[in-house]
Design brief:
Length: 646
């Protein structure tokens, strides 16, 4: 018997009974551009396999690819029949605590396929698919079933077979260097998101969402198949039934900028916020305290209060040597190799509180693994606002579960969290928005080239916020970039906790600072710091205006009535237009433009110009090689007397 019908939510369903015969469904995104076809059919000599394929705007993206798992040492991928299908629509809008936009639309069409093996032991499996305008996602569920109470998943076999040997931007560690290679050259252990250029008008990214207590997935070549990849678990997964995997995501868009602009799909695939009262979760700008002293801490607090920063962070060394298991993170015991102190942390916290500034403490995973349940409530008692988790273990199911539990425990103590080193996000900040940011990015402390940072923007940043550890006065800036480029990073690289001064320190934090001009790494009074003073860290709207992976990014973000534009450039001097059509029509604005200019007699050589602009204004941008441009656009006041931009 064969039954074809068009469901109310735009899903064409074709059900066929009988082993080996094709049975499946076609799922379309709400706008109709993304089409997912799912079927059970004979495939490459195997009987009754579950396969899928994806098209975008009529163009094949992923060819027929198999789905399956290895469960309890037996493949779960063939001899399948569809026993039931269910479909549905979903459309809601939610408000993130922190985000790149203040309202997020979660709209998709859903298909759930229930399957059964046609041979003993007749195991059951279901696969859920979602089709968004921004791409497709799938996850597996092994339900409760007779004779099977607990499973060990040794391997996941989610294939991604592409139509040709497309170019991809591959990296093999979260803080590694990307290489543009054909799909056929990708090696095992490739990180996600993996951005792929199908052609000039179509870009894809393979990603993971809702990784909470499962093993991380990376990507590997599919043996014997050209330009094809397969999921690669970082460890076995053991779980009581029912168990559901994280989402496997195929983002698709007309260009790399559209991928970034549409990255809410990752958070949409996570559970809603689990914290009832989120009033204590506060985004903000941060300065790292580098002297590990009371004097240095108070100097940072004074600078923060003066320059509209919200936090001061004490990094490694405040409780002893971070790699020494004897170091006690419940005490203030300086690492003598890092600082001679003295450090009265309680006094710094008290002083910061009086100035409206919060303190963040770094704790290495060695202490966290031993003392987490002790130190989190203790830090809340001290008045600390957040904790930076350092060098956490990632990848395996064990450490994935531990880390997300550590985020939840921090929430119980009203502490915000920044996770550093190899951890990459998969959207858990929607469920626990006290997870403010994370590294998983080659930030400024690694002195990345501009090409690397401009690759990270359209690969790693698809996954969520990235703690880039911006430094402004450190000498390494002059090795790879300009100061206008550094200003632009605060707009382009999204992070609700944005470190603006990573290696820099305020004057007065060490003896002798008050004599003469500020030395290297000492924060001065350069006029363009007003941009950092004004720039927020979370946004109401985001637009990607120009995007060339590894070459150029121009991003505009809105906070209230003000817009901020960041332009980051790589090795070629460029001129291009920046249309201000995102501004309200008919309303005058003042554009504060910060650009590189060697004739400016400051350490940083940043020129400031101010113009009257409107929505029909087109800025003519000219940026140096390795340079940038930053713009703050605010509604004009009646008394403003600035030249009209021409």
């Amino acid at each position: 018997m064969n039954l074809n019908r068009l469901s109310p939510c735009g899903i064409i369903i074709a059900l066929t009974t009988g082993i080996g015969a094709a049975a499946g469904a076609e799922l379309r995104s709400p706008d109709g551009n993304v089409v997912l076809h799912v079927q059970v059919a004979d495939f490459e000599g195997a009987k009754a396999c579950l396969t899928y394929r994806v098209a975008y705007k009529g163009k094949p993206i992923v060819c027929d690819s198999r789905l399956g798992l290895d469960v309890n040492d037996a493949a779960f991928a063939a001899g399948l029949e569809i026993t039931r299908q269910s479909t549905g629509d979903h459309d809601e809008t939610w408000t993130p605590v922190c985000g790149e936009r203040s309202r997020v639309r979660d709209r998709y069409r859903r298909l759930a396929v229930e399957l059964k093996e046609t041979w003993p032991p007749h195991r059951l499996l279901s696969v859920t698919f979602r089709a968004y305008d921004e791409g497709v996602a799938l996850c597996y569920t092994i339900p409760k079933q007779k004779g099977l109470q607990r499973v060990r998943i040794a391997r996941e076999n989610t294939e991604f077979r592409f139509t040709a040997d497309h170019a991809a931007w591959a990296v093999y560690s979260a803080q590694g260097k990307y290489a543009k290679v054909p799909l056929s050259k990708i090696k095992p252990g490739c990180e996600r998101p993996l951005t792929i250029r199908v052609d000039d008008d179509t870009f894809v990214a393979l990603a993971e969402a809702r990784l909470v207590d499962y093993a991380r997935t990376k990507l590997a070549p599919l043996e014997g198949k050209p330009h094809a990849l397969v999921s690669q678990l970082s460890s076995d997964v053991s779980a009581d039934l029912p168990v559901t995997t994280p989402w496997r995501v195929i983002m698709v868009a007309d260009g790399p900028g559209a991928l970034l602009q549409n990255n809410d799909i990752i958070r949409n695939l996570n559970d809603p916020c689990a914290i009832k009262d989120t009033s204590w979760i506060k985004p903000g700008k941060v300065i790292r305290e580098v002297t590990l002293s009371t004097v240095g801490g108070k100097a940072c607090v004074d600078l923060a209060a003066r320059h509209n920063l919200q936090y001061v962070e004490y990094d490694a060394g405040w409780y002893g040597h971070e790699y020494d298991d004897a170091s006690d993170a419940a005490t203030v015991t300086l690492d003598p190799k890092r600082s001679k102190g003295p450090l009265d942390l309680a006094e710094v916290i008290r002083y910061a509180e009086s100035k409206g500034v919060g303190i963040i403490l770094y704790v290495n995973r060695r202490a966290l693994e031993r003392q987490l349940d002790q130190v989190l409530p203790l830090y809340r008692k001290w008045g600390v606002k957040g904790v930076k988790y350092g060098f956490v273990q990632v990848g395996s199911q064990r450490w994935t579960a531990w880390l997300h539990e550590a985020v939840r425990k921090a929430a119980d103590c009203r502490l915000m969290v920044d996770i550093h080193d190899e951890y990459r996000p998969t959207g858990y900040s929607r469920t626990y928005p006290n997870l403010m940011t994370q590294e998983g990015i080659a930030g400024d402390e690694t002195t990345p080239s501009n090409e690397l940072t401009l690759t990270i923007l359209f690969t790693r940043m698809l996954a969520g916020a990235g703690d880039n550890t911006i430094c402004y006065y450190n000498k390494r800036v002059d090795q790879v970039a300009t100061h206008a480029y550094q200003l632009a990073k605060a707009v382009c690289i999204y992070s609700p906790w944005q470190f603006l001064y990573w290696y820099d320190r305020p004057p007065g934090s060490r003896p002798g600072d008050e004599k003469g001009k500020p030395g290297p790494g000492v924060i001065g009074d350069e006029p363009e710091l007003e941009f950092f003073d004004h720039v927020p860290t979370v946004w109401d709207d985001t637009r990607v205006l120009h995007a060339r992976i590894g070459e150029l990014a121009v991003i505009a973000r809105r906070s209230g009535e003000s817009w901020f534009v960041g332009c980051m450039n790589a090795r070629e001097t460029r001129t291009f237009d920046v249309a201000l059509s995102f501004l309200d029509k008919g309303r005058p604005y003042v554009a504060h433009v910060y650009s590189d200019d060697k004739t400016v007699q400051t350490r940083t050589h940043v020129k400031i110009e101010r113009f009257l602009v409107r929505s029909d204004t087109v800025l003519k941008a000219a940026v140096w090689a390795q340079g940038g441009l930053a713009v703050r656009i605010v509604p004009a006041e009646p008394g403003d007397r600035f030249p009209v931009y021409k």
